[in-house]
Amino acid sequence: MTGGLAIQARDLTRRFGGFVAVDRITFDVHEGEVFGFLGANGAGKTTAIRMLTGLLAPSGGEARVVGRDVYTESEVIKRHIGYMSQRFSLYEDLTIAENIQLYGGIYDLTNAQIRERTAGMLARLGLTDAAHEFVRSIPLGWRQKLAFSVALLHQPRIVFLDEPTSGVDPITRRQFWELIYAAAADGTTVFVTTHYMDEAEYCDRVSIMVAGRIGAIGTPAELKQQFGAATIDDVFVTLARPAGGAAAGPGQSR
Amino acid sequence: MTTKALGGLLRKEIYHVLRDRRTLAVITLMPIVQVIIFGYAIRTDVDHVRLAIVDPAPDAATLELRSRFGATDTFRVTATLPAAHDLEPLFRRGLVQGAVLIEPGFGDNLGRGLPADVLIVTDATEPNTGSVVQAYVLQVIQAYERERGATSSAVRLVPSVRMRFNPTRESSNLFVPGLMAFVLTIISSLMTAITITREKETGTMETLLVSPLRPWQIIVGKVAPYLAIGFVSVLGVIVEARLVFNVPLRGSLVLLLAEGLLFILVSLSLGILISARTSSQRVAMMGAMVGTMLPTMLLSGFIFPIESMPWPLRAISNTVPARWFVVVARAIMLKGIGLSYLWRETLVLAVMASVLLVLSTRSFRERLE
Questions:
Q1: Cβ <8 Å between B15 and A93
Q2: pTM here?
């Protein structure tokens, strides 16, 4: 434990050739909080998340995840984090039970653990009867919830969610956030990126990325006060305006 | 953690293969169908050549010669003409593929020990068939000459030709080793490239990479099933070729399978390399076709003999893994020779396999981490 910090980033930078996707970002995420990582498409959210999860090596700066160095201890980090990418991360041609079995095996759970957690998870999601259905045959909203639950199967200390609710209807989004709260209540730190500004209100703290930098960071209430805005959406628009073209320009979100 | 996680990955990949009916059908039926297609449709054997004989002044000697053309399965004498000018329309209409023109007074000249002329004309619209027909006709004439020589007292130097290892010149004997290379290339390179890029497309690859699995475990989990499928296909092709076309396996089956394994490793590595450099299945498929299937088809000696290529292509063919495997497979199947004569080709394949394996594992990690 490092004084209750799940993630520490110091001047974390990633360049692709001459393009600086993430430009010296510095922030902390406390253990057990729901941290919203906001920004327009192409602002550098996904690049940052990829560096923190060990998918991409940083070009500079420092970062510690679960107290471990992302440069030298990524193998340890991987054991303690969960990840759900913005694209669907379950295998559609496997059944629900087979997907769970696969990820349980990958994270080195015993068969007894897998059985027990599968039963609990499916009961919570109301999918017990669908355990042997192919994932492709269940509705998208359920799949997202299932993918999130599978990402929590090995009880990670931090779970990274990359735009988990994009393309999902408002009711499912609401249910999804209930799952996020449940995970946080169990002590899991949640690091979630989104471009739905209303979702920012559900987070304990948020940061807003603009053109590779962190434009603002704090609780939703602090940010609204600081910018004299009624909603986080207004804060975002205020922040994005000076950077204009850069924020709206062609960016990459992978 | 290694074995259990790996076992899970393998099981998952087997589910993918078994549940994707179309792909499954392609990889199981393709080798079987290919053997049939190459065996029957793309034969280069020349059989039942339609032959015309022009014999203006028949005598005992010419009749004897003519009967020899009638006696072999290679030729079917479709016309016997008194004069050469009747020949032209037959060639034009494609009714004959070759003609033998015997000069008047053939028998007399032979009897007196003078040169007796025979003109061989072939339809060279298909140059290969043309030259094969020509060679066959020559053989018949030489056999005739030889036997006459034996009955008379004159000693003559008679050239003789023997076709070694494939005495009946069955093209199926030649195509089966090449076909094995082709099938293995499709299964190992193409399927590997597609299955890896599919996971990149759907996003599951990221999930695997964030997990504690090492890159090599992910690769092994993805490609091992295709290695097994490739192995089974090779066995299938050998058995089918034997049952349907009587293609022999004169050498050691174990050695052939071991060399096959080496070639599969080379192809798998190429597939991984291709998938590491592409992010869509479509691009990967094109890459695998142009990068591995076409060279295997054109530059391995499978269909076109390497010896008759211009030197730049010959040089390039040395970099095509299938070229070495085809040599080895032919030698084992048709000549029945062992490793002591094939160590050079085997070494080339082994070096290719190790270099490509290292390269592909490295590029996989670089691109995705």
A1: yes
A2: 0.76
What domains, with CATH codes, occur in chain A? 5-89+158-248 (3.40.50.300)
pLDDT digits (tens, 9 = 90+) for A161-172: 988 888 788 888
The verdict on B15 touching A (C-beta cutoff 8 Å) is yes
- Tokens for A203, please give them: 């987070």
B68 and B198 in a single domain? The answer is no
Domain that holds residue B116: 49-151
Q: Are A74 and A54 in contact (CB under 8 A)?
A: yes
CATH number at residue B89: 3.40.1710.10
| Interval B47-68: pLDDT, tens | 778 888 988 888 888 888 888 8
Residue B161 within a domain: no
Q: Does B162 touch chain A (CB under 8 A)?
A: no
One DSSP character per residue, B176-239 reads HHHHHHHHHHIIIIIHHHHHHHHHHHHSHHHHHHHSS--HHHHHHHHHHHHHHHHHHHHHHHHH
- pLDDT (0 to 100) of residue A250: 42
Chain A touched by B88 (CB under 8 Å): no
Phi and psi angles of residue B38, each rounded to the nearest 5 degrees, phi first: -70, -35
Chain A hits for B213, CB-CB cut-off 8 Å, are 106
Instruction: Give a yes or no: residue B158 inside a domain.
Output: no
Q: Which of B1, B16, B210 sits opposite A108 (nearest CB)?
A: B1
Query: Over the stretch A7-35, which tens digit does the pLDDT of each residue have?
Result: 999 999 999 988 999 999 999 999 999 99
Give the pLDDT band of residue B163 (cuts 50, 70, 90). very low
pLDDT higher at B155 or B146: B146
B287-309 tens-digit pLDDT: 998 988 889 888 888 877 888 78
pLDDT confidence of residue A244: 46
Closest CA to A148 of A84, A202, A208, A196: A84
Same domain, B105 and B192: no
Same domain, B128 and B220: no
